[in-house]
Amino acid sequence: MKTKISFILPFFALWMCACTNDDQVTSPDPDETPTNIELVPLDLSSIDNGSRVMMQAFYWDVEPRGEWWNILSEKVDDWSASGINRLWLPVATKGQSGGYSMGYDPSDYFDFGEFEQHATVKTRFGSREELENLITKAHNNDLEVIADIVINHNSGGGEEYNPYRDKNTYTLFDETHGNASGMFNRNYENFYPNSTSNYDDGSLFYPEQNLDHHQEYVQNWLWKKDNSVAKYYKNVMGFDGWRFDYVLGYEPLVVKMWLDEVGGFSVSELWDGNPEVLANYINETDSGVFDFSTFYKLDEALDRYNDLTYLEKEMLWQTHPDKAVTFTANHDTEKDTNEDNNISSENKLKAYAYILTHPGYPTIFYTDYENEDFKEQLKQLIKIHNSLASGETEILYVDNDEYIMKRKGNAENPGLILYINTSENIKKRLIKTNWNNSYLMDYSLNSMATSLSDTNGEAYIEVPANSYTIWSVTPTK
Q1: Membrane-spanning regions, if any (predicted)?
Q2: Is residue 259 domain-shared with residue 147, that is, in the same domain?
Q3: Which of 218, 224, 337, 419 has a CA-to-CA distance to 39 between 20 and 30 Å?
Q4: CB 415 within 8 A of CB 390
Q5: 18 burial level (CB within 10 Å; 0-12, 13-18, 19+)
Q6: Where are the alpha helices (DSSP H) in 48-192?
């Protein structure tokens, strides 16, 4: 794309000195220094920094029931072309709620929609054949497929007397009681407490059906045996990695042993906003984690306190960028019951602009990407992330309604500058770039303004009201 523009050199010492930090700045009189030039924006598709993005390919209570794998198959081509390299699928096996289950009430770990149980053959998402077709199509588009793994608790078993609790519990899982596959049959001996363990991990979910991960039988069926859950999912079904649900319910050693046995990409749901807690978990397991520390700082900065200085605070991506899986929304935060614990729609794109320009491995939420009001901007942000978001990170300026951050790039990559504005006014600032005597433009396409850096790399950049811009160099012709 070639853009012919009237470019304004905005270097006026007296004008700059007259501006305060919170002034709305307007451009100088265009008659003072006009010049006609032809700018040729960088072809972002020709710049590859090796970074990619993951898609959370579901939301809570997806509809229509029984058709989800087919719906996703139709979107794989677009997602791959947009720069996504992994699909995080919902829990793929049968839960107690049958055709209504989102999978977080696991019953049969090997029923991918082929056995009649819990009043259905298909899962909420479809049949085994449809899932296998989806995985094959994803692989043909160079996309890895991530399995959602729920191993804290089980649900949907038959009732039996449990001597360790001196009452009946729903802990019998066999061919006629919630485990039609006949693989990984269970009874009360495989849940806490039992004859070998009185361990209580304080699980909040299904405490009477809380799997004993110390037990050799459970370990064999979850990850050690050739036909264990982990190896069957990887070697038979074709899953490439793991999203571990509710890891607060079992010890980090469980994830560590799983990954040592089968490997693959891994991200754990440790719902904690303390970056130190998240970092300690990474060190114990070598698994990535969802970066709740960044999610909460974005929520505080953009919504809860409306103060962008919260983006100066400590976050996981600063210390563990390769293990921090950043996000702005997921199936839990977007539930109606979590209205006070999510990022508002009006600020969602600014939050995405943040995670897609900063270090970390960003996740896109399905309903955000498929929202026609967001889709084109998210596609552009993914392009920017996969191309220009490189090099060290430096905050150039921050106050309650402005945030300016620089990725310094490298010898092969120019990097970028992110400018977020939450005020109702256009903002413009003189900042120090890494680009000397270079023309600059906004690659987010939210502003048609351009700029020119001086011999010291200083340049004015601007941002529309309540928006963001992402600046980098643009050649001329």
Answers
A1: none
A2: yes
A3: 419
A4: yes
A5: exposed
A6: 68-73, 76-81, 128-140
- In Å, how far are 133, 304, 327 from 273, measured between CA atoms? 37, 15, 13
Distance CA 181, CA 421 (A): 55
Give the CA distances from residue 170 to residues 2, 161, 203, 299, in Å, rounded to whole numbers and listed in that order.
Answer: 67, 9, 16, 40
CATH code for the domain in which residue 447 is found: 2.60.40.1180
Q: 407 and 369 in one domain? A: no
Q: From CA 241, how far away is CA 88, in angstroms rounded? A: 9
Give the type of residue at 211: L
Which residues sit opposite 404 in a β-bridge? 397, 419
Nearest of 475, 446, 439 to residue 462 by alpha carbon: 446
Contact call for residues 141 and 72 (beta carbons, < 8 A): no
- Residue 344 phi/psi, 5-degree rounding, is -65, 155
CB 418 within 8 A of CB 405: yes
Q: Band of the pLDDT at 477, cuts 50, 70, 90?
A: confident
Average pLDDT of the chain to the nearest whole number: 92
Residue 19 belongs to domain spanning? 3-39+393-473
392: its two tokens? 């060290």
Q: 231-235: long-range contacts at Cβ-Cβ below 8 A with a sequence spacing of 24 or more?
A: 231/261, 231/262, 232/110, 232/183, 233/147, 234/262, 234/264
Q: By the 8 A CB rule, do 332 and 338 touch?
A: yes
Position of tokens 């997806």? Answer: 62
β-bridge mates for residue 433, sequence order? none
Interatomic CA distance for residues 452 and 434, integer angstroms: 12
Q: β-strand 427-432 against 361-365: which pairing, if any?
A: unpaired
239-269 pLDDT per residue, tens: 999 999 999 999 999 999 999 999 999 999 9
Q: pLDDT by residue (tens digit) across 162-207?
A: 999 999 999 999 999 999 999 999 999 999 999 988 876 666 778 8
Strand partners, 267: 243, 288
Distance CA 40, CA 441 (A): 10
Farthest-apart Cα atoms in the chain, separation:
89
Closest by Cα among 424, 365, 358, 422 to 390 = 358
Q: Is 6 exposed, middle or buried (0-12, 13-18, 19+ CB in 10 A)?
A: exposed
Nearest to 264 by CA among 223, 302, 299: 223
